[in-house]
Amino acid sequence: MTEDEYEQRVINVLISTHPGWRYEQHDLPGLPRWWAIRYYPLRPDQRKAGARDVLGRTSLRRLVSALAHHDKILHNLRY
Which domain of life is it from (predicted)? Predict the structure, then answer.
């Protein structure tokens, strides 16, 4: 399996497990490579608890971890 095939599989899993997000890849120096952008904005109480509308990470593995942490924040608010 090539790196591109692996990345596409991970993205497909993210789409099915975190459908409220759009996923993008940007190869710009000094910026995170992988981005998750929410389709709908968060409420003020969700932001205050630490949830974000946009997550950017240097690798897909780190993005998956950030999304899991984000889900935990929203779960604790009973979202």
Answer: Bacteria
Which helix (H) or strand (E) segment holds residue 11: the answer is helix 3-17
- Chain segment 32-56, per-residue pLDDT in tens: 899 999 999 999 999 999 999 999 9
Half-sphere exposure of 70 (CA within 13 A, CB side): 21
Which is nearest to 56 in space by CA: 39, 27, 33? 33
Token digits for 52?
């974000």
Do 34 and 56 contact (CB within 8 A), yes or no?
Answer: yes
Half-sphere exposure of 66 (CA within 13 A, CB side): 20
Query: What is the distance between the alpha carbons of residues 49 and 72, in angstroms, rounded to a whole number?
Result: 11
Distance from C-alpha of 23 to C-alpha of 63, rounded to nearest angstrom: 10
| Torsion 43-55-61-23 (CA) sign | positive
